[in-house]
Amino acid sequence: MFDYRALNNALFEIAGRRYAGRPRKPDTYPAVLQADGDNPVLDDRLDHGRDALQAAGRRQEPTPCALPTEDQALKQAPDPVSPDGKLYDTARAIYDPRRMALFPDIQFSTGFEG
Asked: What phi and psi values does residue 23 have, to the nearest 5 degrees?
């Protein structure tokens, strides 16, 4: 079984170390995964790369993470986070990996071809 929690922990650490505490540029959100024949099939569990998982053993409702947006209405709004907390303006919002998407744009690579 693939250790999705370890993957999520690594992505959380990277996002926090590199981007927390300041606005995060839109081009930093894609994550490129390269699988090989020894890895298990990756499926919809890749949502674990989108937002921070809750600690193991904690029983509570999942808290959805806010997603980055280039929505012009939100860019003009006084608050950089939408009223429902689901979207944020990447140019103005201070990035917090505990409540904002880690890497919501997951792309797959077949590897290098020569």
From this structure: -60, 145
**Structure-derived torsion over alpha carbons of residues 77, 78, 80, 81, reported in degrees to the nearest 10:** -80
User: What pTM was computed for the model?
Assistant: 0.74
**Angle formed at CA 61 by CA 2 and CA 14, multiple of 5 degrees:** 50
- 87 beta partners: 67
Residues of the chain with pLDDT > 90: what percent? 47
DSSP string computed for 25-88: -GGG-EEEEE--TTSPPP-GGGGGGTSPPPPTT--S---PPBEEE--HHHHHSSSSB-TTSSEE
